[in-house]
Amino acid sequence: QQQVKQSPQSLIVQKGGISIINCAYENTAFDYFPWYQQFPGKGPALLIAIRPDVSEKKEGRFTISFNKSAKQFSLHIMDSQPGDSATYFCAASFPNFGNEKLTFGTGTRLTIIP
Amino acid sequence: DAGVIQSPRHEVTEMGQEVTLRCKPISGHNSLFWYRQTMMRGLELLIYFNNNVPIDDSGMPEDRFSAKMPNASFSTLKIQPSEPRDSAVYFCASRFGLNTQYFGPGTRLTVL
């Protein structure tokens, strides 16, 4: 069962533009929503994360927007740079021990062109 | 800190052979996760351990796969016998408490 749906599958953005990746989840019990960034040949690395008690979280050029009623969250990359070219995964998990595994979206391959 | 360490980084084997992937989590982390990544299925959780005890192995595809964590600093994922459809990148990740999962660099497995 696909519990986290991610779109688009791939995205091309011009340098300096805004990159937007969207995710939708089904289970309202999810309590933690991280975004991971993966470069070729590397493991995923945590980029930014949010909990549902806030609607937005910003860290530098990266912002998560969270819409609890719509069960959607998105990653915005401002002033996108070629170094941001990577695959991005959204994920969701439950808050309690024994049930805290991450459910990942299918990934978005982002390419920033000069 | 050296981060999560996985070995080998690349493994090429023939169908039917036994494959053992190894993981050393970050010191002090008490949860360990094994994932498989393929183009078709994305990132799949295979199994995870809390305090060396397997908690959820529902993602293990079949009996050919087994995982152990004999102590807090070492885990193995074994495939016996291996099949071509097992070809993938296998990641190990570790975590302390309910905090961030830190992924290792992965093992790229090719079964011929």
Short description:
Chain A is mainly β. Chain A has no helices and 11 strands. In chain A, 0% of the residues lie in helices and 52% in strands.
Total number of helices of chain B: 0
Give, in order, the helices and strands of chain A.
EEEEEEEEEEE
Give the strand content of chain B. Answer: over 45%
Q: Detail the poorly predicted runs of chain B.
A: none
> N-to-C terminal Cα separation of chain B, in Å?
36 Å
Level of helix content of chain B?
under 10%
Largest sheet descriptor of chain B: 7 strands, mixed
Class by SSE composition of chain A: mainly beta
Give the largest chain-chain interface (CB within 8 Å). A-B, 22 and 20 residues
The biggest beta sheet of chain A reads:
6 strands, mixed
Radius of gyration of chain A: 14 Å
**Unreliable runs of chain A, pLDDT <50, ≥5 residues?**
none
List the total number of helices of chain A.
0
Descriptive overview:
- The complex is a heterodimer of chains A (114) and B (112).
- Chain A has 114 residues and is mainly beta.
- Chain A is 0% helix and 52% strand.
- Chain A is built from no helices and eleven strands.
- In chain A, strands 2, 4, 5, 9, 10 and 11 form a six-stranded mixed β-sheet that branches. Chain A has a five-stranded antiparallel β-sheet with strand order 1-3-8-7-6, with no helix packed on it.
- In chain A, a hairpin with a 4-residue loop joins strand 7 and strand 8 (72-77).
- Helices cover 0% and strands 55% of the residues of chain B.
- Chain B is globular.
- The mean pLDDT of chain B is 94.
- Chain A binds chain B through residues 32, 34, 36, 41-46, 49, 89, 95, 97-98, 100-107, and chain B through 4, 31, 33, 42-43, 45, 48, 50, 55-56, 91, 93, 98, 100-106.
Topology record:
The complex is a heterodimer of chains A (114) and B (112).
Chain A: E1 4-7, E2 10-14, E3 19-25, E4 33-38, E5 45-50, E6 56-59, E7 62-67, E8 72-77, E9 86-92, E10 103-104, E11 108-113
Chain B: E1 5-7, E2 10-13, E3 19-24, E4 31-38, E5 42-50, E6 53-56, E7 65-71, E8 74-79, E9 88-95, E10 102-103, E11 107-111
Parallel strand pairs in B: 2-11
Antiparallel strand pairs in B: 1-3, 3-8, 4-5, 4-9, 5-6, 7-8, 9-10, 9-11
